[in-house]
Amino acid sequence: MKISLFIFNPYSGIGGGDKTLYRFLNSVNFEKYNVTLITLSNIKKFSKKIKIIKLKSSSTFISFFQIKKIIANDNSSKKIFFQCNILLMFQLYFS
Fold first, then answer.
1. Which domains does the chain have, with CATH numbers?
2. Which among 30, 29, 26, 34 is positioned nearest to 77, based on CA atoms?
3. What is the pLDDT of residues 6-35, one digit of tens each?
4. 3-state secondary structure of 72
5. What is the reported pTM?
6. 8 Å CB contact between 72 and 94
C-alpha cells in the first residue's frame, strides 16, 4: 500500500517556498506515495497525480481541525504530514 503524504502550504505565492515545494513535488516517487497538497489560497496546478484541497478557512490554526479530519479519513496505514509555512515536519502513523 502507498504511503500518504499530506503537504500543508497555507499561503501559496508568498516567498520562495513555492519554488522549493515545486522542486520537491517533481522529485516524489508517485509509485510509492499518494500526495495531497492542502492550502488556504489559490494555487497553481501541479502534476495531475497530486490531489489539491483548498480549505475554506481564514486561519492556519483553525484549519488544523479540517486537516486532522482529512488525514483521519485517509485509508493508508502510514501517513506523513508536512507543513511548509513553519518548516516543521511531523510523521503521523495511524492504524
1. 3-92 (3.40.50.2000)
2. 34
3. 998 887 765 667 777 888 888 889 999 999
4. helix
5. 0.79
6. yes
